[in-house]
Amino acid sequence: MFFFSHTATTERFILDQEEHYPEATGELSNLLYDIALATKIIAANIRRAGLVNILGSAGATNVQGEEQQKLDVFANQTMTNALNHTGRVCVMASEEEERIIPVPDDYPSGKYVVLYDPLDGSSNIDVNGAVGTIFSVYRRVTTEGRGTLEDVLQPGCRQVAAGYVIYGSSTMMIYTTGQGVAGFTLDPSIGEFLLSHPRITTPRVGRYYSVNESNFARWSKGVQWAVRGFHGERPDEIKGKNSRYIGSLVADFHRNLLAGGIFLYPADAKNPRGKLRLLYECAPMAFIAEQAGGSATNGVERILDIQPTELHQRIPLVIGSREDVGYVADTLRTMGEA
Ligand code: FDP
To answer: Residue 73, CB half-sphere, CA atoms under 13 Å: how many?
Structure first.
C-alpha cells in the first residue's frame, strides 16, 4: 500500500535529481518520461496478451534470424513512436531493426541517441514468463542534422542513462543516470510508476549463478572450470551457489541485482562471439550493474570500455556481484583465456 505523502512518481524523482544539476535543461527527464509512457503501453498489452489472442509469431524473422512475435513488433513500434517526434532524439536503433532508425524528416532532430531492445526474452511470452524492455541513452557526437551510425556506435561508458522495465508479477522500471540505481513499481490502478527502491545496491557476493548449462560441453575449459566452482567443486576458492536461470536476460539480471548473483552468457562452439548484443543488452545492463556496485566483463575487458564496431555486435557477458565476476575473470586469466 502506497501513501501519497511518501510516494515519489518517476516524474517527481527525476525532477528532484535534476535539481542537483542547475545546467540541466529537463530534456533528459522528458526523454525518460517518453520511455516510461511507451513501456506502460507495452505493459498494458502484455497483460492482455492471453486474452486478446495476439500471441504467436508475426510470421517474419528479425535481423538476428529469430522468429518475431507479434508483441515484439508492437513493442518496437511503440518505443519508436514514443521517441521519434519529440525533438529530443537525433537517431534510434532497435534490436529488432537491421539499420539505424532515423527521425522522420518532418520532425526536428535533438541531442540524444536512444537504443532499445523493445521486448527482451521473447521466447518466454508464450509461456507467460517475465520479459522486459531495455534502453540506453547517449548524447550525440555529430554536431548537426540527423543522427548517424557514428552517434550510435559509442562505448557504454558514454551512456547518460540506461534502464529496463520488467513485465513480471508486477511491472518495474529500474534505471540509472549515473547517480546510483533507482527502481519504480507500476501501480496499475493509477497508471504511475512509484518509487519503491530508492537506492539499489547489489551484494558483493551473490547467492545465485545463472547460465544456460545445456551449453556446458560447448564452453571453453576456463568457463567450464569457473562454473564448476559454482557447483561447489572448488571449495577453497569459492563457495557453491544456487542455480537460477529463466532464459530472459531482464528477469535473470533483475533477480540477481536485488538478491545478489552472477549471470553468464559466455561464448560457445555454437555462438563463438557470445549471444547477447553489446548495444541493446550488455552495455545498458553493465551501466546499471556498476552503478549498483557490481561489475560486468566479457572475460577480457570491462563491458563499458568496449568500442562497438557493428550495430548488432554480439559479445560474451559475465555480469553481477563484483566478487563473483572477479572470480570468473581470474579463472579465465589463470587458464590462459583472457
Ligand atoms: P530470447 O532469445 O528469448 O529473446 O537475447 C535474447 C535472450 O532471450 C535473453 O533475454 C536471454 O538471456 C537469452 O537470449 C537466452 O538464451 P538461451 O535460450 O540460449 O539460454
So the answer is: 13
Nearest CA to ligand 1 atom 5: 276
CA–CA gap between residue 290 and residue 20 (Å, rounded): 21
Separation CA 216–CA 321 (nearest Å) = 22
- Strands 89-94 and 112-120: what pairing? parallel
Q: Which residues of 263-281 are buried (b: 16+ CB within 10 A; e: fewer)?
A: bbbbbbeeeeebbbbbbbb
**Beta pairing class for 295-297 and 208-210:** unpaired
* β-pair partners for 193: 186
d(CA 134, CA 79): 11
Compute the distance from residue 127 Cα to the ligand 1 centre, in Å.
Answer: 14
Confidence check: pLDDT of 3 > 50? no
Amino acid 184: pLDDT: 96
Inter-CA distances, 29 with 87, 199, 261, 289, 295, Å: 13, 18, 31, 21, 26
Residue nearest (by alpha carbon) to ligand 1 atom 15: 247
Cα–Cα distance, 250 to 118 (Å, whole number): 11
Q: Going by C-beta distance under 8 Å and a sequence separation of 6 or more, which residues neighbour residue 72?
A: 58, 62, 96, 118, 119, 122
Residue type, 324: D
Please give the Cα distance from 184 to 91 (Å, whole number). 27
Helix count and strand count (H, E) for the chain: 8, 17
Q: Nearest residue CA, atom 2 of ligand 1?
A: 121
Q: Is 64 in a helix, a strand, or coil?
A: coil
Report how far ligand 1's centroid is from the alpha carbon of 118 (Å): 14
Query: Phi and psi dihedrals of 135, rounded to 5?
Result: -140, 155
Place of cell 524492455: 133
Q: State the pLDDT confidence band at 21, using cuts at 50, 70 and 90.
A: low
pTM as predicted: 0.92
Residue 224, C-alpha cell as written in the block: 567450464
Q: What is the distance in A from the centroid of ligand 1 to the CA of 248?
A: 5
Provide the H-helix boundaries in 153-211: none
Rounded distance from Cα 39 to ligand 1 centre (Å): 20
